[in-house]
Design brief:
Number of strands: 13
Distance between the termini: 41 Å
Helix content: 25-40%
Shape: globular
Structural class: alpha/beta
Mean pLDDT: 96
Length: 318
């Protein structure tokens, strides 16, 4: 089964003046000092730093090019080990239910794929009991807590990336923390077949970033918290998902039903006509009246104001 990355396609084709789609801090945190003068680095020291920040053993860490590759590799490894059933709860980031389908898994209760905080709602996950494995995308987790403070079941895969929290799109580094060194070895064998090795130059950059993690963490959380305040202030008649205030993790799932009952696709197309870019609920597997907004840009306040204005004037075509 071929995976179509519909969210990426939507983002590339719907870039408006007021961008409420970019969920990472790209361009908001200056990473130039980590790029400058960086040569090549072996994976071992970066794995050691990742293990320290996550409170785990470096023997469990695999390096990837990002979270999408991480989810794909875990799905491949689980399928190879005989896991046939998977579960996920919608709304959810599309790769977390498409990757297991692409590997031939069927709906069942062997393994649970999820994001924490959830993308798109930014609500923290509660892990139900009874699964053989948990595959957890922690892309936005460090916005809300230190990674070593989170305790996962021993049968968990933890997946992360430098793209969102550090704004490191060009770093192209992510990682998987596996439940055991045996599974980690299986993942890395599969990785050698299906993906190019992670660049040793990029490994050097990622290592320098993590060596400065405490300072960068403060900056990333400050930006997210300040912009989240702007989202709350300019929501108009929009409501948070399930009326629950989300974590300040750069994305929120907003209910627009007080403005309209049209589909999320149609609504986002109309918003795009007015220069406002958001992502429809449909792309997170939901038919509900929600859109995902991200609040990472410097003009988040203006973008939210324009969003509400566009909603209040839906029937007035420009």
């Amino acid at each position: 089964m071929r995976i179509e990355f519909e969210i990426a396609d939507w983002i590339n084709s719907h870039r408006g003046r007021y961008d409420l789609m970019q969920s990472g801090l790209t361009g908001r945190i200056d990473l130039s000092e980590y790029f400058n003068g960086c040569g090549f680095e072996e994976p071992k020291q970066l794995k050691k730093l990742i293990a320290q920040i996550n409170g785990t053993d470096e023997e469990l860490v695999s390096l990837t090019h990002g979270a999408t590759e991480g989810v794909d590799l875990v799905a491949k490894a689980l399928r190879l080990s005989g896991v046939n059933g998977f579960d996920s709860f919608l709304p959810e980031y599309e790769m977390l239910y498409k990757a297991p389908l692409a590997e031939g898994m069927e709906r069942g209760k062997n393994v649970l794929f999820l994001s924490d905080p959830n993308n798109p709602t930014s609500l923290r996950a509660e892990l139900p009991e009874g699964y053989r494995y948990y595959v957890i995308d922690e892309t936005f987790l460090q916005f809300v807590t230190d990674l070593d403070r989170v305790k996962r079941p021993v049968n968990s895969f933890r997946i992360n990336t430098f793209t969102k929290f550090y704004g490191g799109d060009e770093v192209r580094v992510g990682y998987i923390i596996s439940p055991s060194s045996e599974i980690r070895e299986t993942i890395e064998k599969l990785q050698g077949i299906t993906y190019e090795p992670v660049s040793k130059h990029n490994i050097c950059i990622a290592k320098k970033i993590l060596e400065d993690n405490d300072r960068l963490k403060e900056e990333a959380r400050r930006i997210s918290a300040e912009n989240f305040e702007a989202v709350e202030r300019y929501m108009g008649e929009l409501k948070f998902y399930m009326n629950r205030k989300p974590e300040a993790a750069t994305v929120a799932f907003l209910d627009y039903s007080r403005y309209s009952s049209i589909s999320s696709f149609e609504l986002c197309e109309r918003l795009y006509e007015k220069g406002v870019s958001a992502i429809p609920a449909k792309l997170f597997g939901s038919e509900s009246t929600h859109i995902r907004v991200a609040y990472t840009r410097k003009n988040t306040k203006d973008a939210m104001s324009e969003l509400v204005s566009a909603l209040e004037n839906l029937d007035k075509r420009s």
